[in-house]
Amino acid sequence: MTVANQKGGVGKTTSAVNLAAALSMHGQRVLVVDLDPQGNASTALATEHRAGVPSIYQVLVEDLALESIVTEVPDMPGLYCAPATLDLAGAEIELVPMVGRETRLKRAFTAFESKMNFDYILMDCPPSLGLLTVNAMAAAQEVLIPIQCEYYALEGLTQLLQNVELVRAHLNQSLNVSTILLTMYDGRTRLASQVAEEVRSHFGPTVLDAVIPRSVRVSEAPSYGQSVMTYDPGSSGAMAYMEAAREMAYRGAAVAGS
Length: 258
Fold this sequence. Notes:
Strand order of the largest sheet: 3-4-2-5-1-6-7-8
Strand content: 15-25%
Number of helices: 11
Helix content: 40-55%
Shape: globular
Radius of gyration: 17 Å
Oligomer: single chain
């Protein structure tokens, strides 16, 4: 599943990390692939990602085997991370002349699947629609779009959906936008409820019922190398992500069963 939105600050990394943590707490084997050069998902999952550490950059550019960079997250059995380092910032340019540049991650996954069996793989993308995001979409079955409940929330979404269609047409016919998650919801403002209504009227059942509230605890957790699920499991943010993960799991089971 690709977690994508070219707007920054909408909760992509936060959602990828916390949904992954919540799913692993329900006994699922979950891998987070950090495709953002900033490496924030790696930080939140206490995974080493300083310069020189083998990372997703070597997988994309140097054909390193994916399983060689995957590490288990400390104190979170069943949760794994493929880290990103700052080297990844140059990957967009280095990939340009390469053969099959849009499907290098897909090839790495194909070789990887027979070796490690995961229930969920969540890919955290950078806030752009460049080659890193395209690689994630080419390798994924589903796209999860976090949308913040603020003004301009839907701006730029048309471009993202067009890109999904292009990837589906040319690189990955099975890709679909399966999940939209409303984030940064502030129940005290009329604007938040208006945006939520607008998104639901546009996208219908694709939007999860669970809504992620604005939460100081969610923002604090990464600075301690944790997801909010372990940092403060009783907080409103943790409970909202747990509910969202439960919904995703039920939806996945319903699709698998149909």
